[in-house]
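Pasting as-is:
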Amino acid sequence: MTALDHDDYESSDATWMRTAEKGSVLGIRLLVWLATMAGRAPARLVLRIIALYYVALHGDVRRSSKTWLRRVLGREPTFADVYRHVLTFAQVTLDRLFFVQGKHRGFIFNHNGGQLLRDLAASGSGGILLSAHVGSQAAMSAEGRDKHLRINVAGYFANAEMINAVLRGLNPEINTRVVHIDPSNPGSVLAIRERVDNGEMVALAADRVGINERVEHATFFGAPAPFPVAPFTLALVLRKPVYLVFAFFHEPNRYELYCEPFADAIIAPRKRRQEALAEYIQQYASRLEHYCRDAPYNWFNFFDFWNPSQLDSDAAPPPPSTESAAATNVAPVEQTNA
């Protein structure tokens, strides 16, 4: 009936990311080598050239960026605006190489609402963290590890396998807090439920729609935009506290981390389930708009968000139904610590 959001929560990998994935593993590894041997500053200089290349030669990148920037800036974006947008994505991706290795020196992290997650962890109840393909989920996850928070990332990762393979090479342990969503395996949903019932947190994006996935339109920057119903249906099934979490990059090395309560639990009476879920999705869209206005260049959905049919046709099929999978979980499952 509904499908769990299947995109990679940590890597903001829409059309532009899939374009970048067409490059060679050698090229990615050379960037990793440069960042490791020479440091972040020289690698950032190289990224400026790479970002300029993509803006200059990839028309789809420019069009997607301009579609977004027109709405959020309220004016016609310039070439410099588009370049800044793409460069922000590139810089956040570079910093991810450092975060997965636990290298936080030289970065500034400002916390807004972090105590909420510490309190949730102390309660042992488990919870759902909703985010989006904005800013740096790697920064948020890295800070969570430092604070000894058991945060798991749920997502579909096959559409960014190159960079994920490199990241696993840098830190093989990053997969211990990852729930891989397999479109053909209902066990993915059961794995999420198991971790939440074990008092852990599961983070997933709620802003990107998969192929043939059930959607609900919400007003977003003045126009209806499709949002996936699945993350909210999952939260409904789990009956756990839900929080919004974002981590935005600001030049040259600062990350603003935000956490705010979304719902004590998603509640949708059967007779008005669709309407109730639509209200939650609109609430999410409104808060996402609020944060994006403050950090407009941190938006990494590089496609026409209001017309998702323009997404690449090779996107993954939707994962199994959260409702049908949850219905199979009648007996308690054995708890495991990831």
